[in-house]
Specification:
The complex is a heterodimer of chains A (300) and B (510).
Chain A: H1 2-31, H2 39-57, H3 60-84, H4 89-113, E1 127-128, E2 135-136, H5 138-157, H6 159-169, H7 171-176, H8 181-208, H9 219-229, H10 234-256, H11 265-283
Antiparallel strand pairs in A: 1-2
Chain B: H1 5-9, E1 18-27, E2 30-40, E3 45-49, H2 56-63, E4 71-76, E5 79-81, H3 86-91, E6 94-97, H4 109-117, H5 125-139, H6 154-167, E7 172-176, H7 184-201, E8 204-209, H8 212-218, E9 221-226, E10 229-235, H9 241-249, E11 269-279, E12 284-293, E13 297-301, H10 308-316, E14 323-328, E15 331-332, H11 338-343, E16 346-349, H12 353-356, H13 363-367, H14 383-396, H15 412-425, E17 430-434, H16 442-457, E18 461-465, H17 469-475, E19 478-483, E20 486-492, H18 498-505
Parallel strand pairs in B: 3-8, 3-9, 6-7, 7-8, 13-18, 13-19, 16-17, 17-18
Antiparallel strand pairs in B: 1-2, 1-4, 4-5, 9-10, 11-12, 11-14, 14-15, 19-20
Classes of the chains: A mainly alpha (300), B alpha/beta (510).
Chain lengths: 300, 510
Amino acid sequence: MIDITQEIIGSSLRIATPLALAALGELVTEKSGVLNLGVEGIMYGSAFVGIATAAHTGSLTTGLIAALVTGAAAGLIFAFLTVTLGVNQHVAGLGLTLFMISFSNSANRIMFTSDGGQVRVDPWRPIDFGGPIFSQYWITYATFLFIVPLTWWLMRRSGLGLKIRAVGENPEAADVAGIDVTKTRYTAILIGSIYMAAGGAFITLAFVGSFTINIINGRGWVALALVIFGRWKIGRLLAGAALFSLINAGQLQLRLLPSFSNVPFEILLALPYLAVIIGLAVSGRNIPYPGAYLKPYKRH
Amino acid sequence: MNSQEGAGVVIHGTAPSIFLRNISKAFGETIALSDVSLDLRVGEVHALLGENGAGKTTLMKILYGLTQPDTGLIEAGGVALTINSPRDARAAGIGMVTQHFSLVKNMTVVENIALASANTFSLDLASVRKEINAASAKFGLEVSPDAVISSLPVALQQRVEILKALMSGCRYLILDEPTAVLGPQDIDSLLEVIKKLRSESGIGIVLISHKMAEIEQVADRVSVLRRGKVVSNSKVSGMSSQELIGLMMGNDEVAVAQRRPTQQLFGDPILALKGISVTTESGELNEVSFDVRSGEIVGVAGVSGNGQAELVRVLSGTLALDKGSVVIEGNTLGQTTPQSLMRAGVGMLGEDRHASAVHALQVMENLVLDCIDNFATKFQLKQKEILEHCESAITQFEIKTTPKQPLGTLSGGNMQKVLLARLFSRKPKVAIISQPTRGLDVMATRYVRSLIMQASTEGTAVLLVSEDLDEVLELADRVAVMYRGAIIGIVDGSTATRETLGQLMAGIKQ
């Protein structure tokens, strides 16, 4: 039993890694008043570019860097559309997602699967500090030991974080106080997109080691839900990610139990998503959206 | 004052028909109305005059059932009316056209009017169309019933709103600043409609406005509201526009201090405006030029909507100039931005304190919002210094708060003190201060004014834009009066009186 518990915890940390990265990225973005629905697409595109580059160069690190650059580029396009042009954020985000997914799928077909093959790399291996819980990928360690505190510190303790929160709540007031609203929102979107890209790259370069169609499998959408569930607070967001991942890891273990062999695995597979829906329904009232959520800023 | 006398007389002298008695209403700590009584009569145009925030709209929203009074009652014919919703109000014969129209934009005129009376199951658009045509002819309000609302100009949308109210059978019609959204020609035709409704259909009309000219043209009686109280109620024919402006903008009750002694020696001009012209949808500035010297308070007075808001926006860097330039200490700034003005030493207190405050952020965070970089190393905020800065501001400016409280939870007066603390702790060379005491109680008002005086004594050049004449008379060394986007005159503060300023504000040059 202890083994199973440890297995579940260890596995949920792996599952939570890309979710936490993407959700933190979305949180930074949304705190500046911008909703980035491109998260699923950015994860998808970065997952593909990451592994394609790694396969090409033989270097996982180069692959990761390429993935992060892809995320940054996608973020820049998104920022240009939503901040500079003031395009509807839903449209721009969904458009970005559709584009990134289709682009990756096409490129994947042309480059790798036209002869029935699949792009594969020898992925990063878990680093074992003893026991199933402490046998994790370096990105998982980095996420929870470094990125999480860094993000908290960025939002609560740095000048940039204060600027991001100010432009997300009241851009007019920030502008009159001398804060460059456009620059601050670009920065937040860029940081957020790079986080999302890291989440995507983790899946192909560490977790799976290959690229298949639909590899992100809705993780980006779950990340969006986590931000709302977490009420834009990092602690609550992580609690949500942990809950989702635990249920997910739990159902993976349940599938292996003989007594569950007659239950269709799709039902178990749906459990974590059911939890998301219930979680959102429970926590979804009186949501403290950032004051300028979804509103482009223009001086009159 | 003469055009309507003949027409109105017929129905004049009718007994008052609706009484509002001792109405009071507060929103949190802001008192919107205090013990207001008013009577409305059929066949009479009753103007409600007052500055922004005086309580006109709140009073009429109470009458129309959009909000409930804390105390007080509404009576008709000796019977108390219960008005809990606009539906109740319409049943009592009261209709209202609010500033934001309540029309469904993607529907036609017929559909919109049918909505007001629609049954659950049957929908007889043909008969509604007939009724509309009959009513348009009767009231002289021509509309095309099948036009889609969004395709109509604002003036016609307003006409549909009026028609909708009249067709619900109202005998009293409240018009909330109806001319604010109209061009000059549409204003004239609306005023004609108002006269006609009064004299031919005997409708009692409440006209909320702060434009003297239209009140003189159509109103029979005028009640002046100031800071939530009725300060005057009289026939229009007995009042001059200067008197009305004086009543609307000042009374002695809140004049809290002696006029400050004018300093004889001002420094050099710090802020100079040179021929500034801008045009926006809401108003314009026309060749505005003046300067403010070190240690001087220049007041800008005027009836609201004569360019003051645009002037403040130019000086906050959020409105692009068509012509002219802003000069600070001899340096010409050309096109201004908030950043360039701040670098030049201009500080700003905006008219709407909620627009310059980030409610969700803490008091201490708001206090450093305009100088984050001074309170941060390359990597992080200097939390301790920010806290100390905030604590000393709380002591110095007597703010009732703790540093970590979200700003949005503070009362209006304390929020204003936070914003003033932010402004003055930067030691600005120029302070642009707009409507600093609007909505504040007497104590807070007095304190805010003393802060402004102190800053000027310390050498800051202060530009004070205020619709409160007492405030301007109390603080300003010179008063620039704005009329239709231009400076119509600059008067020495020590010799200015409410009468001389009132004349200028009405557009009359000596």
